[in-house]
Amino acid sequence: MISGLGVWEIGLILLIVMLFFGAKKIPVIGRGLGEGIRNFKGALSESDDSSKDRTLEEPTDSDKP
What we know:
Blueprint: H1 7-21, H2 26-56
């Protein structure tokens, strides 16, 4: 399993999360976490695109010594 966590450990963690947050809040938390990850990935791909654009640009007269 993941990092040495077995089925019982994951089940126990999920049970504690359900007791702590309640069954109605878990989908809301999951949706918010998914949106956060999606935004983070989008920001990373934007920064990668902009860095590629900068490396592909030809140097201008102001860049030359």
